[in-house]
Amino acid sequence: MQQAMSLGDPQVTPTQHPLVGEQKDIQYYGSQARGILNSPETTGMPFWSINPYVGCAFGCAYCYARYAHRFVMERGTLTAEGAGSDGDEVLPPWLAFERRIFVKRNAAEVLRRTLRDRGSAAGAVQRGETIVLGTATDPYQPAERLFRVTRAVLEVLAEAKGLKLVIITKSPLITRDLDLLVRIAQRSTLTVHLSLITLDRELLRRIEPRAPTPESRLRALRRLSAAGIEAGVNIMPVLPGVTDRPDALAALVRRIAAEGATHVNPSPLRLRATARKRYLPFLAAEFPHLVTRYAEAFAHSHEMPAGYRDGLRRFMKQLCAEVGLQYGTPDERAFEPRAGAAWAVPDAPMDEAPPPPAPQLELLST
């Protein structure tokens, strides 16, 4: 983002979450975290997670994590001046997620205290269970340039030994912390997942309006690889009819391999209730010819039909084999749903797509 951030005075707004910074139409609120390590029991996923921020300014149309605001604010709406105020501007929760960012200013302090404790969270870390940084918000979003919460968290993690750490981000800002990443990799197991779904810069700008360019992410991948950091790319999500053209996916995989990636993790779009409220209007505005087919595909599940998912998996595995790139990573199982979290999917694949030059959804499901 181009405009410089301005620091707010935490004492000015007498709310539970004081205003601590502003940038264009984004406001940052301070949040005091009581805990920073989220357990598998809390998230329903088989790993521990750390999120230095709540909300994400990148504003990706498909983001699944927009539900996260309910943990810090009441359900319903947020106002431009913060919780409990009488501000004139009212934002729906899905939009507040990318315009009202909560900064866990005490995250590093809480993490250090947790790791010194003998409680269950510290014990899990000591047993080498996976910790994922950036599951519900990007830890290197624009706020990090100002607040440096992620760097402070990494400084704490760099003091430990024998961790199994995964970092997920879209931002080249991660290379700012190469000194810490190298130190962590020397003492623990570290994997970085850079997210990139297309090489098409203009298309990406429509889908991820405030996220870094493809070129900047690829440069970050190159720098991480040159520093000896295990770094790959999450092609997540593959958007049916939008980013799933076989030639485009092939070009992306080849470029990722050329920049020194160690692995690729692809996954098709999932649309839970909160994500639908943002993505479906986006689809209607940008790709109206896909609306009916999406409605049919996601009528009974938040996942694409099994035929599409299986076709994508086969296609991507073949691509990876052709360029000598690993499909998935050793920590791949960390991202699978916990037992009992399976979802029903419709048996029928998506209807055939219209003829070229329209996107062809059927190519990966046959």
Describe it:
This protein has 366 residues and is α/β, with parallel strands linked by helices. It has a single domain, classed as Aldolase class I (TIM Barrel), CATH 3.20.20. It is 34% helix and 17% strand. The protein is built from 13 helices and 14 strands. A hairpin with a 2-residue loop joins strand 2 (19-23) and strand 3. Helix 3 (107-116) packs parallel to helix 6 (149-157) and helix 10 runs parallel beside helix 13 (306-323). The longest helix is centred in the last third of the chain and has 18 residues, at 306-323. The radius of gyration is 20 Å and the shape is globular. The two termini are 41 Å apart. Residues 1-15, 74-88 and 333-366 have low confidence and may be disordered.
